Amino acid sequence: MIMCFNKFYSQTDKPFQVVDGIAAVVADNIILKTELAQIVNMTAAQQNINITQNMELYQQLQKQVLQSLIDQKIVLELAEKDTNVIVKDQEVDTALETQVNNILAQAGSEENAEKMLGESLRDFKREYWHEVRNRLFTDKYQQLKLQSITINRTEVENFYKAYKDSLPYLSPQIKLRHIQLPLTAGEESINSTIKFLDSLRTAVYGGASFTELAKTYSQDPGSKARGGDLGFTRRGTLVSEFEEVAFTLNIGEVSQPIKTAFGYHIIQPLEKQGDKVRVRHILVKPLIAEQDEQKVYEIAVAIKDSINTKDEFIAFAKRHSIDETTKDNGGDLGWVNPDNFALPEIGQVLKYLELNETSQPVKTSLGYHLLWLEDAKAGGFPKPETHWTDIERMALNNKKMNWYQDFIQVAREKVYISIK
What we know:
alpha+beta, Triger factor/SurA peptide-binding fold, Chitinase A, domain 3, 4 domains, 4-stranded antiparallel sheet, 13 helices, 48% helix
């Protein structure tokens, strides 16, 4: 195996660019220098590595990326022979779009993203599509192999003996379930909101400034100061009800009031460019009257009084909770840190919960919640008697990591590899 790395980078302030050629050969697959450069640039952008300020780190990244690409090609050779591994084009499209959106979020703009990548996003997506497909292929193959790995009690105990002095400190954990009930405005408030937005739409067609009306009345804090302007957004990044109207309306046309999860809107497209639209809107949220809130609270109390067991809590969560991410598994939020819960209103009451009892209704910005404390674990350095499942998880992950390293090492010896 030839292990000689050429310097495939530029000493300028531009992204890593090379004349096309072969960086490595892995069996029947080749890794082009342009492919290597592209992924190095993307990774550098994601990790905020500036090649003009830290060339040594950039060179290390280049070597890591090349080795990763070689290992991927090795696994790809094996994965393509496994009929159980299937990757659909739609999966590749979705993964690639997610990758591009992450780059855009970090870069701050399309122009900055293209500067960091050294090419247009359109060219990047076209060239990177097959790389994403191959990565999904290898990831699925690895998952297929790793899922068969299990661990027994003796192995966990041996892992603990070997690593107990270096295991991380664990925060306190509680196993929590919840039922989320929505705070919704009544019919009178909704009708009043729609009527008000209708009046703003009429005013715009009468010559009033959409921008000034949005600055005065919109309840979207992110766009209010810009007159409701959301800038250019790509298809698939807006909520479906909003996006359908934004792409359907003619430029300058103002929509009828439409409902989304955020409230009610009127929308005006300003420009369209392929799968992107520049749109502005005015958002108004119907007021939730005291009687509307009281009604939801009374429903929550009635549900609480009907629950005596965990199974009953799970059944009510599946039937009544509006949290789509947890309702199907009975409101299971998993193990959470009670000192750092995402919703502060819930975080404040966690220390008062009793095991295997339904809490009083807790009001948050998302609605009313009923909580069920299923289990609790004290914090500290892990010990088998108090943190067995955590130690078991760490031991299994360690076993999988070691297995994969051995697997790759053996595969490297069996596959022809030439690094130019």
